[in-house]
């Protein structure tokens, strides 16, 4: 941001001069576009590497089925 702070999360929406960022473990945050110095989109997943290694095949299938309902 223009004040030097950094905000990281999912871009939930960008309309009417406001960016709404959905941060991990926090409520969505509305930021006026005028306060944004730079906006960078990362192609890297926020999911920690190896997170599902300990899951059974059924748990992985259940996780992806649940994620498909979030659209």
Q: What can you see in these coordinates?
A:
By secondary structure, the protein is an alpha+beta fold. Helix content is 17%, strand content 21%. It has one helix and three strands, in the order E-E-E-H. The protein has a three-stranded antiparallel beta sheet with strand order 1-2-3, with no helix packed on it. Strand 2 and strand 3 (29-32) form a beta hairpin. The longest helix is centred in the C-terminal third of the chain and has 12 residues, at 57-68. The mean pLDDT is 89.
Short description:
The protein has 71 residues and is α+β, with helices and mostly antiparallel strands. Helix content is 17%, strand content 21%.
Helix amount, in percent? 10-25%
Which stretches are low in confidence, meaning pLDDT under 50 for 5 or more residues running?
none
Elements, N to C (H/E): EEEH
Shape: elongated
Give the biggest beta sheet. Answer: 3 strands, antiparallel
Average pLDDT number: 89
Tally of separate helices:
1
Give the beta-strand count: 3
In spatial order, strands of the major sheet run: 1-2-3
Measured distance between first and last alpha carbons: 29 Å
Strand content: 15-25%
Computed structural class: alpha+beta
Write the layout of secondary structure elements.
Elements: E1 10-15, E2 18-22, E3 29-32, H1 57-68
What keywords describe this structure?
21% strand, single chain, alpha+beta, 3-stranded antiparallel β-sheet, 71 residues
């Amino acid at each position: 941001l223009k004040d030097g702070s950094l905000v990281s999360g999912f871009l939930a929406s960008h309309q009417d001069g406001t960016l709404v960022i959905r941060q991990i473990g926090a409520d969505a945050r509305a930021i006026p576009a005028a306060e944004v110095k730079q906006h960078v989109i990362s192609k890297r997943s926020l999911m920690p590497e190896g997170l599902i290694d300990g899951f059974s095949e059924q748990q992985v299938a259940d996780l992806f089925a649940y994620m498909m309902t979030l659209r």
